[in-house]
Give the backbone structure.
Amino acid sequence: MRLFIGLTLDVVAGKTVTLKFYVRVKEDLDVEVTTTLLNQATIADLIASVEIETTKPRYSAVKTVVDGNKNERAEQGETLTYTLEITNDGLIDVESMFVQDELITIKDYFVSVDDETLTLNGDDSFTVKDLIGGFELNLPVGETIHISFDLVLKSDLDMEAIYLIRNIAKVNELNPSASIRTWIPETKTIGKPDPKPPVTPPVVKPPVVTPPVVTPPVVTPRVITPPIVKPVVAPVVPVDLPSLLIAIGLILRRRTERH
C-alpha cells in the first residue's frame, strides 16, 4: 500500500534495489475492451513502465454421432456412438468448465440411458447420468478431453414419426450438437427422398514419363600422321679425272684449229 502513496529510498552507488508486488486481475474483466494492462512508476524524475496484453480462455467443442453399420442412418435397434471432444486452444488453462448433455427430446428413443457407461479420457467409471446432470472439468492449455458413450435405439421405435435424431450439449457458453437421419428398411422413406450424392470419378493423372537421357558418343578425333618422304638422292657416278682432262684438252684444241 505504501508504494501507492510513495516512499523514499537510499540507493548506494553501484547497488540495485528491487521492488516486487503482485496483483490479481478481476475475473469479470472485459478483455475485449481492455486489450492491454499498462503500469507506470515514478522514480525521481524518471518514468518506468511495463505493458502486457490481456487474453481470455479459448476452447472449442465438437460433438459427433456414428451409427453401428456406418451408413449414416439411424435404424431400429441400432447402436449410436456419441463423442464430445473439447480442446483448449488458448493461452491459459480453463478451470471449472461446465459440461452437460441432457439428451433433451431424444432420451425416450433409447432402450437404456442413465446407467450406460460413459468414458472420459479412457476412464470408464462414469455413467451417462453424470453427463445429463452436468459436471465441471479443468482443461490445461493445449490439451483435449474425449467423452464418449453408446446408446441403443429401441427396436420398435416409430421411425415414420422421426426424421432426425438431434441433441445439443453444453460446454460453458458453447453448444455443440450432433444429428443423424433415420431410415426405414425396404418399403418406407421418411420425408423427401434423399438422393445419393453423385459419384465423382477419381481424377486419373497421366503418368509422368521421363524421357531417357541420351548421352552422345564421345568421338575421338583421328590423328593422321603424314608419311615421311625421303629425298631421292641421285646415284654418285665415279669420275675418271685423267680421262676427263684429256677430253677437255681435245675439245679446246679442236676449237683452236678451227680458228
Notes: Residues 94 and 186 are 49 Å apart (CA to CA).
